[in-house]
Amino acid sequence: MNPTKSQTEKKEKSVKQPAVIPPTSEATPRVVIEKVSPEVDRGRFPAKRAVGERVVVEADIFADGHDSLSAVLLFRKEGTPSWTEIPMEPLVNDRWRGEFSVTEIGRYQYTLEGWIDRFQSWRRDLSKKVETNQDVSTDLSTGAGLVEKAGERAPDRDAKALKTTAAELRNPKAERVRIALGEELFQLMKRNPDRTGAVRYEKELTVVVDREKARFNAWYELFPRSCADGKRHGTFKDCEARLPYLAEMGFNVLYFPPIHPIGTAHRKGKNNATKCTPKDPGSPWAIGGKEGGHKAIHPELGTLEDFRALVAKAKDYGMEVALDLAYQCSPDHPYVKEHPEWFWHRPDGTIRHAENPPKKYEDIYPLNFETSDREGLWKEMKSIVLFWIEQGVRIFRVDNPHTKPFLFWEWLIAEIKRDHPDVILLSEAFTRPKVMVRLAKIGFTQSYTYFAWRNAKWELTDYFTELTQSEVREFFRPSLWPNTPDILTEYLQWGGRPAFAIRFILAATLGASYGIYGPAFELCENRPLEPGKEEYLDSEKYEIKKWDLSRAESIKETIVRVNRIRKQNPALQLDWNLRFHPIGNDQLIAYSKCTRDLSNCIVVVVNLDPHHTQSGWLELPLDQLGLDPSQSYQMHDLLTDAKYLWNGPRNYVELNPHLMPAHLFRIRHKVKTEYDFDYFL
Amino acid sequence: MNPTKSQTEKKEKSVKQPAVIPPTSEATPRVVIEKVSPEVDRGRFPAKRAVGERVVVEADIFADGHDSLSAVLLFRKEGTPSWTEIPMEPLVNDRWRGEFSVTEIGRYQYTLEGWIDRFQSWRRDLSKKVETNQDVSTDLSTGAGLVEKAGERAPDRDAKALKTTAAELRNPKAERVRIALGEELFQLMKRNPDRTGAVRYEKELTVVVDREKARFNAWYELFPRSCADGKRHGTFKDCEARLPYLAEMGFNVLYFPPIHPIGTAHRKGKNNATKCTPKDPGSPWAIGGKEGGHKAIHPELGTLEDFRALVAKAKDYGMEVALDLAYQCSPDHPYVKEHPEWFWHRPDGTIRHAENPPKKYEDIYPLNFETSDREGLWKEMKSIVLFWIEQGVRIFRVDNPHTKPFLFWEWLIAEIKRDHPDVILLSEAFTRPKVMVRLAKIGFTQSYTYFAWRNAKWELTDYFTELTQSEVREFFRPSLWPNTPDILTEYLQWGGRPAFAIRFILAATLGASYGIYGPAFELCENRPLEPGKEEYLDSEKYEIKKWDLSRAESIKETIVRVNRIRKQNPALQLDWNLRFHPIGNDQLIAYSKCTRDLSNCIVVVVNLDPHHTQSGWLELPLDQLGLDPSQSYQMHDLLTDAKYLWNGPRNYVELNPHLMPAHLFRIRHKVKTEYDFDYFL
Fold first, then answer.
1. What is the distance between the alpha carbons of residues A151 and A168, in angstroms, rounded to a whole number?
2. What's the CA gap between B41 and A538, in Å, rounded?
3. What are the contacts of A39-44 at 24+ separation with CB within 8 A?
């Protein structure tokens, strides 16, 4: 009956300690620092950033009474002994802001400090008294004392100036008021503040900094066994031949489903049949056979050397290979014999297969992460990641992480990233919202989303406003997948080729990170196992497929163009800059993304109706896009290279999904006029 | 340069501890409990309730995987060793709710516990398998094991039944599925859950429970020296004669500005003049003279015995006497000589008077709460409160608390309430929003608000929605004052007698707590010191006033009626039940308050225009008010006793401010029809 307290949660029971009278040796702490942002769950979890991004820190900072305050933001790379200080600026209503940039992969700490600024308070009051012609001789004497003390703590350079100024403030013949309120003294005192009684925020907060690919990437999921030209089992060598095709399309992560030996016990046949024929290759997620487990390679794919060669070759094409981390076993996995205690047992002693009633997965044994041998199991799981890191892999797509304990992932990811901070882990959790969010908090670099099922305009608007504008963006990096081997949405089943183009353009422009399962996706494969189901007919999970990459309906050219546009336009490499705009037609969705300096502004309009032409009047907030309402501007459609001259905030848009279901405009701010002719100069 | 850390803030630096593999002896903690409500600033501050109120606790509770969870809310009165458990109910999206009632003054703790409910998970899965006709014999055996174990930990009463049931589940001849899924076993297992691996929320949260008057009260501020009939200095005896008048109006807190000796040095004259005549009585806030300080009584008011007699007499009339805690001194206060170190000194050694540049308060010395003798000063301040508690006072209005350190108040209030939990402290802080909120967090029972300056409909709607519907309501109890001796708003200056009635009805119905400064208020005194200023002309702060209580323009009768209605209608004794309703006219404001069971529903409509008749169509959400849209209902105006028969959600309202600027309807749900005649029975 005794509850086990989470070991990762600090025992905060006595958060409230009785207030006591501060001893004479200490100043009374009067400054309050609260509502700090970013601060994930009271600092329990770090915020996330990628190299080169900014951390904008805000807080409520205030004190009793009417004194002026000053505050600084402190930050440091983890392991660096000293803090760098950044002055914070007051906004309105006791809110303050400061920011720093993160330039290296790893972990940074930050905190805040605020203090009563006696000089600023004095200066402000003096100014008011001077304005109402009050006698200020006593005030000048008080100020001289403050300046003198600053002189005592200042470096030599300032010390002399401060001492001189203090003397002047005491000299009735000097222009004392002008000196007291002057800019020179203001700056001197700002450089040498009296921070007695300064209050440091009670926590040091953390931000995890990943490499840029954690934020900006394009994944391509590929079954290597289907890479051969014929019906034979594809190999890593065959995959090499596919690289030019993938590189041309512009993908930079090549993700393989599990590449390990596949079990034969209860192997599934075509279309998930419970019986299989000797020819059926089985699901790659039924990991482990007599040839080995999670650290082995399925013999028909090739050798470890072949795999390493493929990793290197992919790199030459600008692609990183990502592997699948699926912590589960086929009944033939060596673990089953070596460590039966790592599995779930029925009352009769047999090992329980996976199930999610009424569904059964007889070819898979789930691991019991609560086994009495947690030490053994968890460390073995870690060794799998380290093994593949040694083979050159730095990106992992993690299969169903929500079916393993949070604590396991938190431990594993911390262990891995301590020595390999460049590792990226993508959480494949299609589950309840709070569980998905939790997995992101405990360390997953990126997360699958509900994007596949967000089709209507209001669904997309609500969901992406939440993902990009609410607090979850501090730690949850969305990865947008229009399809996966398990998910062929009804929208794709019914919408034909335009539906694929629509969903692709949405994924690649709503999100800086996205992925597709190909070649099924670009070839517009849309036959479901049966009506109303999301499984593919003749799913590649259970058979070797021969894909005709030259199919007429391929949307490859659109992919090529969109990925090129993403690379050339930094606004599309960000998530938080997404803003939706009204267009007066529920079948059209419009949004923009701009860089902070507005030098790169992209406006996207997508026709969500894969069948009919739709039109509407787009309303753009010209001021937010850096446009002068009195000037024309050019909208350059980067998909078609068409150029439109627009005027004012409202302009007409019409999209035929069978030609091209979207505009991907770059705003060209300057439209030439007669003033641009030479003779006007 | 070393920052002083707040002593009351727990040093939470290492909030994030590395995740470790749980030892074999412990279950893996899989349940997450977060986003608990109420929880003020991570539990740093308590929530507040009054006796008889409910504490509705919600939290996100979830775990990895697909298991069913159970959760309980635990609470106890502080000092009670054992917790009382309340089962929590799941809402949607992993949100859970439980509640308890607080029945005694003092402090309660509460926390939460959740666990993986293996029996519920098993039962749910079994049910799904049965539905799809799967073989469940192994499952029944697994279930038998769970039931057996429950039998081992159950009390005798249940143990036998559990053992019997386990045996039945193992008996192929029994109706095993029916038993397994039956209600009897469900209840048995619910009473005897397996809480292995239960996770207790990491904090014990606190709720401070005050007496009911902390929430529901009507204050009357009165200068006792103006209670005499003629021009002579009024006494406590004179105040006794005023009690029937106040009791008739229905007030239950009688608040006196400071009753202590008044200094003569720099005493202010009429209308805050810097020079005074020997006849001028001075401001009561210039506390302290040769007759004593904060524990003495101004001799002209009477003796301590007179004061105690008045307190007792007021009690007979249903009123509690509240005193002013103004921690500041006149230059003649005994502290100035006894403890010069408690004050602020100029460079020349003289003591600094109060100022808020360009304003000066030469008759007042502020205390320096950061004095090196904090121990001495703070304890002396505490002794003042204890002294008046001994004289029978339990309510204090605290003057300008925002000009003293937060830590001082947190310490003082904790010290006082430890032994006197029935003490009520009203924070008179008219300052920046976050400072006002902080004072409420650190312990003030009630708080002055910006009500006086919220006149327009949108201002009232926004402000009271924030106060009654946002998280601040957990600790900030608003007290609504249409006027104070320092605040005669422009609305009152310009709006004549109707303005006073309007502001009174708003204060007394928008808030469960309100107060007026009288007799200035009920007599509609509205002459400002000068146009554009909020000070009263011939302010009572600086002179003895003779008020003619029988003035024709007195709104006494309205006050009598409204306070009687407040007493008779529990819906008006609450704050959180406030809901605004559309009425299609910006000069009319409409809102309702209902008790939880809808047995008492009040609808208020106020004409905010003190000059003209206004009309509009009120739209009521009939379902939320417990009204059947197909039935007529009676609106009984409790102010005028008029009765209206209304139909449907939209009804016409018209208010002439010169007659009565408001309706104060009680909804009578039942309107008689022919079915009510005897012969229908």
1. 13
2. 55
3. A39/A203, A39/A205, A40/A441, A40/A471, A40/A474, A40/A475, A41/A441, A41/B34, A42/A203, A42/B12, A42/B15, A42/B42, A43/A203, A43/A204, A43/A205, A43/A206, A43/B12, A43/B15, A43/B16, A44/A9, A44/A10, A44/A441, A44/B15, A44/B16
Assigned token pair, A411: 């431990």
Contacts of A199 in chain B (CB under 8 A): 3-6
Q: State whether A357 and B128 contact (CB < 8 Å).
A: yes
3-class state of residue B406 by DSSP: helix
DSSP calls for A587-608:
TEEEEEEE-TTSSSEEEEEEE-
pLDDT one-digit tens code per residue, B214-262: 999 999 999 999 999 767 999 999 999 999 999 999 999 999 999 999 9
B contacts of A142 (beta carbons < 8 Å): 346-347
| Neighboring chain B residues of A342 at a CB cutoff of 8 Å | none
The whole-angstrom separation of Cα A88 and Cα B258 is 42
The torsion angle over the Cα atoms of residues A74, A77, A81 and A83, rounded to 10 degrees, is: -20
- Give the integer Cα–Cα distance in Å for A379 and A342: 12
Asked if A15 and B10 come within 8 Å (Cβ–Cβ), the reply is yes
pTM of the full structure: 0.93
Q: Please report how many Cα atoms fall inside a 13 Å half-sphere around the Cα of residue A454, on the Cβ side.
A: 21
* Chain A nearest-CA residue for B46: A16
Q: What is the number of residues in chain B?
A: 681
User: Hey, are the CB atoms on A30 and B406 less than 8 Å from each other?
Assistant: yes
Residue A290 falls in which region: left (phi positive, over 0), alpha (psi -120 to 50) or beta: alpha
DSSP B331: T
Question: Angle B480-B486-B489 (CA atoms, 0-180°, nearest 5)?
Answer: 65
In the annotation, is B399 catalytic?
yes
Q: Which residues lie below 8 Å from residue B209, measured CB to CB, with a gap of 6+?
A: B48, B49, B50, B51, B53, B102, B104, B105, B106, B107, B108, B421
Residue B2 has pLDDT above 50, yes or no: no
**Residue from A4, A207, A403 to probe the interface with B (highest B Cβ count within 10 Å):** A4
Q: Which of B29, B138, B202 has its CB closest to that of A4? A: B29
The neighbouring-strand residues paired with A563 are none
Is the peptide bond between A531 and the residue preceding it cis, with omega within 30 degrees of 0? Answer: no
State the catalytic residues of A: 399, 428
Catalytic status, residue B300: no
Question: Cis ω on the peptide bond leading into residue A649 (within 30° of 0)?
Answer: no
Task: Report the distance separating Cα A297 and Cα A235, nearest Å.
Answer: 11
CA A620, CA A618: separation in Å to the nearest integer?
Answer: 6
Contacts with A11 from chain B: Cβ below 8 Å: 202
CA distance A533 to chain B (A): 18
Asked whether the beta carbons of residue B374 and residue A8 sit closer than 8 angstroms, the reply is no
The one-character DSSP state at A365 is: E
Chain A's closest residue to B35, CA to CA, is A41
Residue A672 pLDDT > 70: no
Chain A neighbors of B206, CB-CB under 8 A: 16
Residue to mutate among A5, A14, A16, with most B CBs inside 10 A, is A16
Per-residue model confidence as pLDDT tens digits over A95-143: 999 999 999 999 999 999 999 999 999 999 999 999 999 999 999 999 9
| Portion of chain A with pLDDT greater than 90, in percent | 91
Q: Which of A29, A406, A410 lies closest to B4 in CB terms?
A: A29
Q: How many Å apart are CA A304 and CA A307, to the nearest integer?
A: 5
Structure-token match 């995740």, residue found: B19
DSSP H or E run through B617: strand B614-619
CB B567 within 8 A of CB B561: no
- B439 to chain A: closest CA residue: A64
- Indicate whether A6 pLDDT > 50: no
